[in-house]
Amino acid sequence: MADLEVLEQRLGHVFRDRGLLERALTHTSHIYERPFEGAPSGDNEQLEFLGDAILGFVVSEYLVRHNPGFPEGRLSKLKARLVSAARLHEVAQELGLGEFLYLGRGEEMSGGRSKKALLSDAVEALIAALHLDAGLETARAFIEGRVAGGVETSENSTDASVADYKSALQEAAQALKLPAPRYVVVDETGPEHSKIFTVEVRLGKDWVSRAEGQSKKSAGQKAAQQVLQQLNE
Q1: What's the domain range around 98?
Q2: Structural contact between residues 187 and 198, judged by C-beta atoms closer than 8 angstroms
Q3: Which of 20, 57, 125, 181 is deepest in the core (most CB within 10 A)?
Q4: Which CATH number does the domain housing residue 179 bear?
Q5: Which residues are catalytic?
């Protein structure tokens, strides 16, 4: 089992009640299969329920605050994207959350540490654990920094889905027998809660592009899209 202090470092929060963190990471299968092996006192289903509600509230508030002119329909689409299992799975992967989960033997054998549904549920449970341990502001900081902050929600975002241009560029590089694209953050501007990142991507010697975004990820996606357009010209 991975050291939970490592996860706390990634979260930027040391739990006063370590039991809350352990419970957030405990899948039902662990409780059923190992009730007498020092397992945390409960699984993460109740925390998942609470975390889902906190996530929905904070994301709604975040979107209204950052996009005061958006109609309800567009806000709803953006919210659906931010609270989706796909987005939470991305957050879990960024945290390396799978390595910290408490799983039963059967779930472990079936690849539970990489299952999208299981990991997205764990993120919701983690949000609840942060809230119960340190209050709403700590949970809010995690959601805005890790969940909402990694997805473009400004006027430039016109769709509820985002094409994975970085993966497409990686595939193009392989097809052209070139080294993998290199991404560098070349600039950061604005206050902490509303930064704009500029990311440069280089593919071989001939293709380079820069783009801005509300997160490093969105800026990288835009830069990758521009290089793909160069390749197609």
Answers
A1: 4-150
A2: yes
A3: 125
A4: 3.30.160.20
A5: 52, 124
